[in-house]
Write a structure and sequence with these properties.
Structural class: mainly alpha
Distance between the termini: 39 Å
Number of strands: 0
Largest sheet: none
């Protein structure tokens, strides 16, 4: 289910959004939703990179899968 939100954008951003929407025969909503989805993909990448860097730097550790199963009471 979709939920309405309110955001404030610079006039030039709204103008560009409207131009793309008109050119592509899409709604503002569909373009903003797609842009956010794509940005979330980029954020996921950034988080993964940060986690890898933390692991390499020894700031985090890896828990073996067998240990996770054991703590969860799952026999393998």
């Amino acid at each position: 289910m979709k939920q309405a939100i309110n955001i404030r954008l610079e006039k030039d951003v709204v103008q560009t959004l409207d131009e793309y929407a008109q050119e592509l025969d899409k709604t503002r909503t569909s373009l903003v939703e797609k842009a956010i989805d794509l940005y979330f993909d980029k954020l996921d990448e950034m988080i993964a990179d940060k986690r890898i860097d933390n692991l390499k730097a020894g700031k985090t550790t890896v828990v073996p899968l067998e240990e996770v199963f054991k703590k969860a009471g799952i026999d393998v």
